[in-house]
Amino acid sequence: MSAPELSLLAKRRFLPLFATQFLGAFNDNLYRSAMLFLVSFTLYRGEADRAAMVVVIAGGVFILPYFLFSSVSGQLADRIDKARIARVVKIAEVGIMGIGWWGLHSGSMPLLMTVLFAMGTHSTLFGPVKYSMLPQHLSETELMGGTGLVEAGTFLAILLGQITGGLMSADTASVLLLGVAALGLAASLFIPPAPPAADRPAVELNLVRSTAEIVRHARRNRPLFLAILGISWFFALGAVLTQQFVPLVGHLNAAPEVGAFFLGLFSVGVAIGSLLVSRLLGGEISARYVPASALVLALAVMDLGFTVHGLHPAETTVGVADFLARPSSWRLVADLGVIAMAGGVFIVPLYALLQTLGDPASRSRDVAANNIVNAAGMVLVSAGVAGLMAIGADSAMLFGVLGLLGLVAAAVACAFLPEPVRRRWAGRFLRLRHALGRP
Prior knowledge:
The chain has about 450 residues and is an all-alpha fold.
């Protein structure tokens, strides 16, 4: 990590926003993890099918606000001072977590789901604020490093929230949720003003019409929409990979902590890749590493499929130490590490482009369009995975299919390369074909 990136953590124009985002991501995942552990090991203990159904429903409940309210959140963030919105959202989080405390304490499923929907709404409203605010507070040379720090912090917060929620009792977690929400509110009070541009859009409250218009507006800017598609692909891929950790652990006859190890490896790897690419680019906003990282990502996912296919269950249930003692396990660890780091290198430049390619007056709406497409992409890819599993596909086959789709994404990512670079690559490809004797 370069010194300029670390120095941002000492500046008021970055640290309060970073802390607010970090604490919010931590709380989201702490609540979800605590809720799902409560469901699986207390409310529906011994009823695996009912618990699994609740897990699926919970995922849908959390992502639903992204479809419903992203358009409104983008319009509001382009109309009202973003720092003010952040504070209002954090005040709401304290109230939501107060209700969440009672939901976890009472075990009321309707209340637990209501809080989950409210947390999804909270994240939906805050998403356009954080990414459209960064270019207002950071210089062009700082934006890549700041984006890398935000992404690294977010993935580490997700990991810490999920682990903490699994280790604590529901009552203890509920108290921590309130404390973290209060800290997030305190951090938001120090975010500097981020006023809107002179052109303040009227807020269209027709959710269907406003959602369609925001996505249509982003599609008119081809490079911007390609960045959105790339971001959506990564998060859909990441969602499927992490969902497969549980069945993969079952296939390997491993203990649950091995699944936590996989999740930790993935989260830390993305964080490392996020910081690495900002250092490689030296503050330049550029997508020159995007195609190569997309290719590495795709090949590593394909190799993960071959690796999983060749692994056999242990004779007795193994923990992390025994799992790592098997030489064949290290190829799986290497695949996950490469996937995660390549993902970090892939995603950060695309987020920087998302923040800079469009009109500053509509930047929040562009981020909202990204959130809508992200949610749709995760739903579509998850539905495709469910279809493959319905016809008998195992994890190895799923990873192979995702790897092939990743090769397509890598080819599309070449559109981000400057024209001279594309021509040079095309020339090399033609010379290679000629050397191989092909017309």
